[in-house]
Amino acid sequence: MKRKIVxxxxxxxxxxxxxxxxxAQERIKRSIGPANFYISIKDQIKVTKEQEEKLLNIEQxxxxxxxxxxxxxxxAQQSLSALTREEDVDLxxxxxxxxxIATLEADMKFTILETITLENKILSKDQRxxxxxxxxxxxxxxxxxxxxxxxPAPPAKK
Length: 158
Known about the structure:
Radius of gyration: 25 Å
Structural class: mainly alpha
Helix content: over 70%
CATH class of one domain: Mainly Alpha
CATH architecture of one domain: Up-down Bundle
Strand content: under 5%
Largest sheet: none
């Protein structure tokens, strides 16, 4: 009886852990800030579970905010488009719509900047420096951070 209970609890634990991991991966698919990159190299820069969760929460909040703003921008752009198709274009209304769109787009850019700043604050300076070094190495055409350079091959025997 105890064995069945233990096996049942283990099965539940596996399902919960699998679901949690897939949810975390789903949340970082469309990364706004550096969270996706930091988490992809978390072993090299030693990201803690707490840091990872904070990064994911910031990222998720930013994604939600950007989606909301984006919806409003789209509606404003559609209104402006409809307005410009009219024979007598109301320039005052067009100017208001343009100002609104510009303000919303600025809010989107600020949200991105805010997300990057908040996510960078989660990591220590040492972690950020390591991540920057890894990113530099990757940008040089290497897809993986370099491990130790292998020793040179021994000279060929004659």
